[in-house]
Amino acid sequence: MMRVVIVGAGFGGIEVARGLGEARIPVTLIDRHNYHLFQPLLYQVATAALSPADIAEPIRKMLRHYSTVGVVLGEVVAIDLGRRTVSLATGPLIPFDLLVLATGATHSYFGHDEWAAHAPGLKTIEDARRIRSRILLAFEQAEVCADPIEQERLMTIAVIGGGPTGVELAGSIAELARYTLSKDFHRIRADTATVLLLEAGDRLLAAFPEALASYAERKLERLGVTVRLRAAVECVEANSIRVAGQEIGVGLVVWAAGVAASSVGSLLGIPTDRLGRVAVNADLSVRGLEHIFALGDLALVTDKSGAPLPGLAQVAKQEGQYLGHALAKKIRKGRIAEPFEFHNRGNTAIIGRHAAIFDFGWWRIRGWLAWMFWAIIHVYLLVGFQHRLLVAVQWLWRYVTYESGARLIVENGE
Amino acid sequence: MMRVVIVGAGFGGIEVARGLGEARIPVTLIDRHNYHLFQPLLYQVATAALSPADIAEPIRKMLRHYSTVGVVLGEVVAIDLGRRTVSLATGPLIPFDLLVLATGATHSYFGHDEWAAHAPGLKTIEDARRIRSRILLAFEQAEVCADPIEQERLMTIAVIGGGPTGVELAGSIAELARYTLSKDFHRIRADTATVLLLEAGDRLLAAFPEALASYAERKLERLGVTVRLRAAVECVEANSIRVAGQEIGVGLVVWAAGVAASSVGSLLGIPTDRLGRVAVNADLSVRGLEHIFALGDLALVTDKSGAPLPGLAQVAKQEGQYLGHALAKKIRKGRIAEPFEFHNRGNTAIIGRHAAIFDFGWWRIRGWLAWMFWAIIHVYLLVGFQHRLLVAVQWLWRYVTYESGARLIVENGE
């Protein structure tokens, strides 16, 4: 029997494992974490609305019913194409006949890796916990600060990058400060905190239609976010940033500007595009390495018009579903699969209470209805009924009381 | 106006702040964390049943309505009795006229501090997260381990100390392995894991009546816990412990054997008892330092018979309520308070599903009814309605499905 190894248990990898598990094909799924993460809600952990466990599900539990699927906790550090093995950081070699790479993306600081220490990005639970601690700590420090200039600096939070993550973060940081922290602090007025959303381009949310993006901008401004367009960041230091020549003191910077494919792709020793993505064929096999497959944020997959598919959960998920079935057919019946085709289920971003945008291509909505859609779909997509219930209870609670439940500063948050 | 400073926002300190806040007396509450922790349920975070935020409440939120109460995030590193100031690790000096110390307890390794690295205790959220990660990691390592002896070692978890914390931990680790992890792992049989509960004394739960303690022992054995009495630990190393001359390979050791008062007491430069506790007068003022008060696990308070009160949440809470009112009277009216008197509300410990013990003195119960009492009281005592709701939902869910929701291994868990 073919030995199939999948690296990465995100939206793509988990679907491949499910597809193969259903066909009772032996497969080993390797991930650095023991949980699958529902990344679209990670910003809510970073802004103290949800707990990490609310959006994470043990991989073993998700795949429990597939007796042919083995799960291995480990980090892949090398791929030997000749011997067909992957090596884990802890030592073991895992042999494969077919290899599926679904390792996703990480932050890209555009060659300024020194900014990483001062401007955490938001890709993992640890990132979210770190950002949450730093936001809360900045307000704690402002509360005991005697110097008004220093206090103003501490209460200035800059979000770099006006894509969906930046918009969601800026909106929910502003809501946290305005509605929740303003009641917690007595000396400072937390609702006067400055939340800056800095975007180098001409407008926010480049992937959305102009009308929805400008709606988002107006809504953010009304929440108290200062949106600055054509504001390229030139320098990030511990307590300040330089934007378009201007020095701005900041209590915290969050990086939501750039992502690049995870470095596992580079382990293959083949050329990648500017974002580190691996070129694949129509069946998601890597060009020139037909026994290796790549999907999700790691793979450069194009639509019919030749444009690359965006780095969205739904793209990775559909690719994973496709590849699971395609590989099962290939292994069981030796059949070659139809090419992968992406079906757009709608692109969405949330700005705040009652405010979201939804672009289905043929239908564009914004405001209250889009927000309801967003909430229902995201609760529905969460893995496991317990998570849905807990998250729904917390959202309802927050909606009624303006309270965010998980305002913890953790010791190793820095 | 008198400047009152409280150090520690546990069960004792928070009550003092409330009492003074209600009397509109200015007070500064200092804590190392920004949250109040409901420690009695910490073992459920350590065993993946609850999330940290379920049992932690922001201190600022709890005291939000008291406009005279200031909250400061910081660690007290020195107390100057002459100048009447406390210094924080970050630098600032905070002056006081009356000082209340409510800093609780920490682990004590009986002079073997080198054991701390291998045998984490359970006092903080970070401790709980660390233990949770290590338990889950041991099973992950066993799953990929080829050597059966090493596998057996990894699946041996030793809990040192047969008090309530040790009993609760051992019981819920056994339940986690037997009911939840056994479904997650395919190669290993997680339900065959060895959970050792080691107690140096003659019996478990020395603070409970003999009959309840032996019921707990029987219940633990039925859950699969191996209880060893008169088993003093002589050595703790990374992968093994020595107990009564016998070397035992272990995947994880958890320390639940000893506590000592937090070292803040020693900053006073006065003698303490064997457990680091400070002797106090009947009004909880420190002997010889009448403008300083101590309570909770830090204070040696005796009952009418002269026996020291145990280190329980209800003791700290009653002392805090007493001291809040007593200090308010003293400051407002110059009146000297009645001496503190403890009212026993019942002592409880939980062993597992359907199994708890409750000792009210005049009434002793065990089993299903005690378990219901335990659950209702603990949910009721949780701060905040949201926490009660979330925890109740999760308990109910776990009761029906045998699932623990928060099985996350975190990166900085080690």
**How many individual β-strands of chain A?**
25
By CATH, the superfamily of the largest domain in chain A comes out as FAD/NAD(P)-binding domain
Mean pLDDT of chain A: 93
| Number of self-contained structural domains of chain A | 2
What does the model show?
2 copies of one chain form a homodimer. Chain A is of the alpha/beta class and 414 residues long. Chain A folds into 2 domains: 4-107 and 259-333, FAD/NAD(P)-binding domain, CATH 3.50.50; 116-257, FAD/NAD(P)-binding domain (3-Layer(bba) Sandwich), CATH 3.50.50. Chain A is built from 10 helices and 25 strands. Chain A has helices spanning 11-22, 42-46, 59-62, 125-143, 148-154, 164-184, 210-223, 313-333, 368-381, 385-401, and strands at residues 4-7, 27-31, 35-37, 56-58, 69-73, 76-80, 85-88, 93-95, 98-101, 105-107, 156-160, 194-198, 225-228, 233-236, 240-243, 246-249, 252-255, 259-261, 278-279, 285-286, 289-294, 299-300, 347-352, 355-359, 364-367. In chain A, the strands form 8 sheets. A 6-stranded mixed sheet of chain A has the order 5-2-1-9-21-20, covered by helices on one side. Chain A has a 4-stranded parallel sheet with strand order 13-12-11-17. In chain A, β24 (355-359) and β25 (364-367) form a beta hairpin. In chain A, α1 (11-22) runs parallel beside α8 (313-333) and α4 (125-143) runs antiparallel to α5. The longest helix of chain A is centred in the middle third of the chain and has 21 residues, at 164-184. The model of chain A has no long low-confidence stretch (mean pLDDT 93). At the A-B interface, β5, α4 and α10 of A face β5, α4 and α10 of B.
